[in-house]
Specification:
Blueprint: H1 2-9, H2 21-26, E1 33-39, E2 42-48, E3 56-62, E4 65-72, E5 74-81, E6 90-99, E7 102-110, E8 116-124, E9 130-132, E10 141-146, E11 163-170, E12 173-176, H3 182-185, H4 198-210, H5 214-222, H6 226-234, H7 236-243, H8 251-254, E13 263-268, E14 277-284, E15 287-296, E16 299-302, E17 307-310, E18 326-333, E19 339-345, E20 355-358, E21 363-365, H9 370-390, H10 399-420, E22 432-437, E23 441-445, E24 449-460, E25 473-484, E26 487-497
Antiparallel strand pairs: 1-2, 2-3, 3-4, 5-6, 6-7, 7-8, 9-10, 10-11, 11-12, 13-14, 14-15, 15-16, 15-17, 18-19, 19-20, 20-21, 22-24, 23-24, 24-25, 25-26
């Protein structure tokens, strides 16, 4: 799969190789070694000492003056060549943090005067971005890996596949343009067989989906061994949600946002069936804005801000969303063929999941809607679980803080109590410590009846619980709804164990 392909596909470029991790750790502290390489009119100066302090650095010098510099645990010059086609060489400076399976960061500079950074990307376990000519003209594309499936769905890292990530030179920057090259996504797709590994099955199936080969993907799924077919079917909603923004993360950049602006979003056909659009929260300065990004006239345009919020200092937009309390969460296909967007919002201190109906120029939060009624129940259960789990935090709590946690639990229990009678699972709500939804689907979406189905992690606090991290069991949440004179209401909901894991027990 891609991990092997990338290792074999590196072109013959001037480069300095990585030192062995084992060797660097077992040898005595290395002195700093300074090397200089000419690249166009510039000198690339590397100061390296393996994994020792101080960190390595790479500097771009013109006439002895440092005009750009990067540093990391280890740094190398990956290549020096003209990849944009303008006659000016580019220097790829690659940093490595020194961790297992992670992390590489790539900095590509056009060596004009002054040098201009045309790519800065966190590449996870991808050590090299390989230049290739994919469209037969102009700048070379840069091929790397997309690690969204690292450790996903019960896989260890050794079996986690990387999809292709392809950067194109557009508007003076290299941006993720993977969706433009479905043929590359299909390069390493194999045929299912009795010896197919879980990671290969995930790679093949996901690659077919991102290439738009939905029917072929379903055929592939049907031909997998039963265990793998059950596993991928079980995680199908999660997988499709995970893939919704494939190749879209740089659409805000193409629409004019700062390349370094943090962003997170979901993809879907929001304004009309069949369209590819990206709903994202993008940070700029002290503000974060929710906008719809869409293709137009060969480029990407941004809609007006649907909402804005203060951006907390140090908020993380990637996995975990630390400090960020508001982001697009789920894409839900409706009976009309277009998608609605469910946004996670915990800015009030509780949890809400407003449902947005989007047009190209505006958006509306749906009030009397089946999906909205279902997400209110989900939000109530999730808020309760958060409050219960917070009571087990390892950090010391004062009596006043404990009392406030208890007050919040009481309020959350009172809100969810009426709905508990409609569920099939009887449990003490004050023990609910984990209720995490990973995708939403609507298999039934009629004028007066509806059904919402979601994979969830459901967990109760243990008798010996000593932290806020409450383990849970993967389950299927089914919510049935009807519309009466008073609007949409939940009539029944159920939790059933969800089966399907990648390896036989």
């Amino acid at each position: 799969m891609l991990r092997t392909v990338l290792a074999a596909a590196v072109l013959s470029l001037p480069a300095l190789g990585w030192s062995s991790l084992a060797g660097a750790q077992s040898s005595p502290p290395a002195p700093v070694e300074t090397t200089r390489t000419t690249c166009g009119a510039y000198t690339v100066q590397l100061r390296q000492n393996g994994f020792e302090d101080p960190p390595d650095s790479a500097s771009l010098l013109l006439n002895g003056v440092t005009l750009a510099r990067v540093s990391d645990t280890m740094v190398k010059l990956d290549f020096c060549r003209d990849v944009t086609g303008d006659g000016i060489p580019e220097a790829m400076l690659t940093g490595f943090s020194g961790g297992a399976h992670c992390c590489f960061t790539h900095h590509l500079y056009s060596l004009s005067n002054p040098p201009r950074r045309v790519l800065h990307v966190f590449s996870a376990d991808t050590d090299t971005l390989t230049p290739q000519q994919l469209d037969g003209q102009g700048a070379l594309e840069l091929l790397g890996g997309d690690w969204r499936f690292a450790y996903a769905y019960g896989l260890p890292f050794a079996d986690s596949p990387a999809l292709w990530r392809i950067y194109s030179f557009i508007g003076g920057q290299y941006v993720d343009n993977s969706r433009a090259y479905p043929g590359v996504a299909l390069r390493e797709v194999g045929q299912p067989g009795p010896d197919t590994r879980p990671g290969q099955a995930l790679y093949d199936y996901a690659s077919l989906l991102v290439a738009g080969k939905t029917a072929r993907a379903q055929t592939y799924l049907s031909q997998l061994p039963p265990r793998l077919r059950t596993w991928l079917t079980s995680y199908g909603p999660d997988l499709r949600q995970n893939l919704s923004d494939y190749g879209m993360s740089d659409w805000p950049t193409r629409a004019g946002a700062d390349p370094d602006a943090p962003r997170t979003g979901i993809g879907g056909s929001f304004s009309a069936p069949g369209r590819a659009e990206y709903l994202a929260v993008v940070g700029q300065g002290k503000t974060a804005a929710l906008r719809l990004y869409r293709p137009q006239s060969g480029g990407i345009v941004a809609g007006d801000a649907l909402d804005t919020r203060p951006l907390p200092a140090g908020a993380i937009f990637e996995t975990g969303f630390a400090g960020l309390n508001w982001w697009p969460a789920f894409t839900v296909r409706r009976a009309t063929g277009r998608d609605d967007a469910v946004v996670y919002d915990a800015s009030s201190g509780s949890v809400q999941y407003p449902v947005y109906r989007l047009g190209t120029a505006s958006g509306t939060v749906l009030k009397d809607d089946a999906l909205g009624a279902a997400t209110r129940l989900i939000a109530q259960l999730e808020a309760l679980a958060r409050h219960v789990a917070s009571g087990y935090a390892s950090a010391p709590r004062s009596a006043a803080q404990q009392a406030e946690i208890q007050r919040r639990i009481d309020v959350a229990v009172s809100r969810v109590q009426p709905a508990l009678a409609l569920g099939n699972l009887k449990f003490d709500p004050r023990r609910l410590g984990n209720f995490t939804v990973s995708a939403l689907e609507m298999p039934l979406d009629r004028a007066d009846t509806a059904r919402v189905v979601a994979p969830v992690t459901f967990g109760l606090v243990a008798a010996e619980q000593d932290s806020e991290y409450v383990t849970g069991e993967r389950s299927t949440l089914t919510i049935d709804l009807t519309r009466g004179a008073g609007g949409w209401t939940v009539t029944r909901w159920a939790l059933e164990k969800r089966v399907g894991e990648p390896y036989a027990e």
